[in-house]
Amino acid sequence: MSDSTTPPPGCPAHGSAVQLGGLEYQQTPSHLYRTMRRDHGAVAPVLLDGDIPAWLVLGYPEVSYVTSHDELFARDSRRWNQWPNIPADWPLLPFVGYQPSVLFTEGAEHQRRSGVITRALEGVDQFELARECESIAEKLISSFGGSGQAELMSAYAHALPAHAVLWMCGVPRGSGDIEQLVDDLRISLDAGEGDDPVAAYMRVAERITQLVKEKRERPGPDVTSRMLQDQADLSDEEIVQDLITVIAAAQQPTANWICNTLRLLLTDERFAVNVSGGRVSVGDALNEVLWLDTPTQNFIGRWAVRDTQLGGRLIREGDCLVLGLAAANTDPQIWPESHVGAENSSHLSFSNGEHRCPYPAPLLADVMARTAVETLLERLPDLVLGVDPSELTWRPSIWMRGLNSLPVEFTPALR
């Protein structure tokens, strides 16, 4: 795109590109996806913040194709043809600005880096993780259980996976700075009004750098130590970058998965009758959320290695493709009767291909989310929503699907 003011046909800035954002996207993104699919097909021209052009891949087959063909759609964002138009303070820079982490590596280097993460995560005992998550849940519930009311997003859903992933990485339980670290994780990933996400991220990076140094000197049975001892012999800087990626991927999406599942259980009559009678419906709810309210709605992204065709569109070399995971999960091509069957798990919520969440990360996230939901319902069996369901609002993000808050009421717990 040599002239950004007069883009050629096929360029995502050409014609009726859709602005990503706005109230409709916040509250009912599924309606917007349907409209975009009707007007543009499986690959839609969109405008990111500051009217920066990109493509949103809406179709399940198309997202699967993009994520399976790294030779055509690569992860190194330095390929982007729009960099001359990106201002220094562009709000999406933290997501697309190249970093020396596993997220932006390709080919053999990506296999090397992701292999270290996979082997380190495989060393996590899932039963031990479940016990730790239950212990964390008990402490969190005890902190608000006597009041008869709580706001679960901040008091429970965000905190539990943060504590759990830090435990997996070897941060000592009694660390004096662990609560600050948990709070900084939340701010850096999901800043609220008045928060400084950049400063919070810098504090997280400093603490993880310190953790790597500590584990280099005194290794233990944890993810950080296993990464340091891996035969790939990553540098401390590489391990810090990749640990931050692991922690971020485990914390915010799992927090929203927990909260979105609790919302479903508390507002959908299909589950309300059955939750107290057993655990089967909790598993169903967790899986249904991954199909219908997946925590990561959209992921940026992939960059075209050369001119190619996708979904009937001409994709130019260097174009940015946003993976529409939520849209793909509800693609009418795979659900022709408009009924999403939660009984299978072929959703794209953990992405697909070489850059999907490394095994066994989805299993560990499931342990965290399932334990969080089940422990809460066991401890507070008469839990009910504290407001009318229509009063629940979604955070103003096109990337993550999560509530602003989830207020609940219950009979005060005695312990």
UniProtKB/TrEMBL annotation:
Q: Which residues form the signal peptide?
A: none
Q: Which InterPro entries match?
A: Cyt_P450_B, Cyt_P450_sf
Into which family does the record put it?
Belongs to the cytochrome P450 family.
* Name under which the protein is recorded: Cytochrome P450
Q: Which organism is it from?
A: Streptomyces ortus
